[in-house]
Amino acid sequence: MKVLVIGAGVVGTAAAWYLTKAGHEVTVLDRREGPGLETSFANGGQISACHAEPWANPAVLPRILRWLGREDAPLKFRFNRWDPALWAWSLRFLANCTGGRAAVNTERALRVALYSRRCLQQLRAETGIAYDHRTRGILHVYRDPREFGHARKAAELMRRHGLPRFDKTAAECAAIEPALEAVAEHLAGGIFTPEDESGDAYAFTAALVRLATARGAVFRTGIKVIGFETNRDRVTAVLTEGGRLRPDGIVLAAGVWSPLLARSAGLRLPVVPAKGYSVTIPVAGHGGAPTVSITDDEHKIVCSRLGERLRVAGTAEMAGYDSSLNQLRWRLILDQARALFPDGGDFERAEPWAGLRPVTPDSVPLLGATPFRNLWLDTGHGTLGWTMACGSGRVIADLVSGRKPEIALEGLELGRFC
Ligand SMILES: Cc1cc2nc3c(=O)[nH]c(=O)nc-3n(C[C@H](O)[C@H](O)[C@H](O)COP(=O)(O)OP(=O)(O)OC[C@H]3O[C@@H](n4cnc5c(N)ncnc54)[C@H](O)[C@@H]3O)c2cc1C
Known about the structure:
Elements: E1 2-6, H1 10-21, E2 25-30, E3 46-47, H2 60-67, E4 75-77, H3 84-95, H4 99-127, E5 138-142, H5 145-160, E6 166-168, H6 170-176, E7 189-193, E8 197-198, H7 201-214, E9 218-221, E10 225-231, E11 234-240, E12 243-245, E13 249-252, H8 258-262, E14 272-282, E15 293-296, E16 301-306, E17 309-318, H9 327-340, E18 351-359, E19 366-369, E20 375-379, H10 385-400
Bound molecules: flavin-adenine dinucleotide.
Flavin-adenine dinucleotide binds next to α1, β2, β14, β18 and α10.
């Protein structure tokens, strides 16, 4: 089958890989000058399958209220302009903040994330793909004993579901990651998920493009898709700035821009941008950079060692499609990283970046079928697009090929919002 993938981020590229492996004739279009240059470019680097909890949960509301009006809030809503999509999304987000909904959404996100980590590991074993990856787990650290208490309860619940998530004392945290020694006395403890991983999503995307190309996939960059033409239950043409294309199947993997394209086919995707920042710090000559991926849960920042760089990422700002760099917010991340790892790198040479996470109100991606028989969705991966890319791509390749995916699709498709 001739399959067109729209979007060459980590999600679209992973789909292209699995589709090519399944024997399809695959073309990937991206409007940027190369693959992986948008949200997949400089993210936090974590493959955090064991931490796939949704944003929407009963504990988040009091926090959002506490953070209101604070420019340095880890999660900030900017409702100061008329944005119907954001208002509609926010109402759905609120509806997902009950304990019951959070439990359902956790199971759905975990289903994709754990499967995806297995797919990534298989892909790595099969191809030898290298992307500054580390398989030393993820350690969440806490200063506030109360927050640590909540995290321990959540970890216990997850262990009952078979997820390896272990409580650690401050001393044990420093033993797992000696770079934490300088701050260990201020830590209440940590939660360790030894099976989680980290790595450079951009390096992975670029390497996978090369592997997929060697197997016959075609990546065409610098081409913008404008919309779709439809007839009843089929997309009959994909309109691009370079002309009209008529593939047999289409996979929409355009990250935060997916809803803008879907609209031309009459589909409403509840996906909005949540801006985040990262700083990338050179570590050469500094002995205090971590090699285990760390999450500072209080400040909501993640730190991943990517070769000779330390990537630190965090904050979420619901502010539409504006991806400009707000000095205050990225400098805050830099200061928090410096406080955690005083000798972690050359902080003066840090490179700031901002990207837009494609978030759904329930933190579960939009995967699978649409009302159009030849259009599939692979989008809305939010904070976990790197974690979920391979599994999502594999699911899409199975669906396009008419095979039953290896994980259940219940609760992952667009139909849950209709
Ligand atoms: C600060 C930050 C930290 C993060 N940390 C992590 C982490 O630690 N772990 C994790 O799992 N996830 C993390 N994420 C989330 C993750 O980066 C995203 O979920 C993921 O990159 C989304 O990938 P994507 O391929 O869907 O989107 P993108 O990478 O944005 O790709 C979409 C592509 O579609 C193209 N496109 C859009 N419109 C069109 C059009 N009209 N025509 C043609 N092409 C088009 C774009 O050019 C782009 O290349 C983080 C995100 C941010 C912002």
